[in-house]
Amino acid sequence: MNIQFEEYTLPNGLHVILHKETHVPIVAINLWYKVGSRNEKPGKTGFAHLFEHMMFQGSAHIPPEMHFQLIQSVGGTLNGSTFFDRTNYYETLPSHYLEMGLWLESDRMGYLLPALNEEKFKTQLEVVKNERRQRYENQPYGLWLEKILELAFEPDYPYHWPVIGYMEDLEKATLDDIKEFFRTYYAPNNASLALSGDFDVEEARELIEKYFAGIPANQNIPQADKHFTGYRQGEKVAVVKDKVHLPRLHYAYHLPGICGNEIYSSDVISGLLTGGKSSRLFQKLVYKKQMVQDIQSFVLPMTDTSLFFIVATPRPDQTVEAVAGEIEEEIYRLQDEEVPFAELDRVKNQVVAQKVRDLQSVSVRADMLNMFYTYFQETERINRDIENYLKINEKDILQTAQNFLRPDNRVRVIFVPEQK
Fold it and tell me: Of 150, 185, 198, 232, which residue is the least packed, with the fewest Cβ within 10 Å?
């Protein structure tokens, strides 16, 4: 698949990526800001995610909630998301409403502060606190990732805390904190804008110039200054008592950041272990030995370092120790012997097929274009992504497993039922 696009940068630093696709009369507008929970500090966590909520509360020329109403009234969809390294906002709408979508995004980039007030802040702060209660604190196993991050990273390292932040930090947050966060990071020279779909390129250029070029840059955006060096420093284990019926085992292995080639081989390893009913751990623990209720593995890619997860829920008649022994046996297999070509080829084909399916969507294409620009500073890499998976060979799998999937390079969090 070859995705054609053009890109340029406005004088104020906003990077623009244009990908024209005329098969369907819709357009995806996708805006990435290079700010996430990684840019927070201990004691002031959760600001990036809280500000995502604030971005939908109106700006100087748009009343509260009107952003949603305008997009949805023409049949469009929209949302935003916050991650460790970025925050994005996106909408997909009929092509002839492109100007409206660009105006909405530019107004909150350039003119959000005049519309922020204490009432909006307090309302959204309560929304976020309730989200934390419902999705994390009151959810079975809900704190699993938070516990892993706290074990995997030192307290002052910026992946130590969850993206949603800690409740005690949210309760101490102020409107001035949020305004300062916006002034620091929500600037055009800290953002990239991608359009994908059915639009006229020259018209799009004129509209982007009209709505975004006048927004001033911030020349004093602080850079993240801490980098992960904690590979192979010994296993860390935590046992968490929770209101659950069954125990659950969580492994997390340290990996290099998203720009490392190990991301590709780790993704393939995940497919080998739990990618479908023919995968190794599914066949062994679900189908043959019937030891687990469910099992999955996946990669959490981040800029500075990444994590490889294995999560398993033992059946009521099985112990955590027995399941852990079987999982580790399969990890040792990956370290001791090369994966047969046919098995590796099958998994790579599965991964590539999923990538191709995802890229059929203009909204996914816009998001991926932004991702490759933001993380790699190389948008063209989108056209080599599938090739990078196809190049993975038996030795790559062996080397990644030997170097990173080892006991002294991991943390384990085990949830167990509270004793009544």
Answer: 232
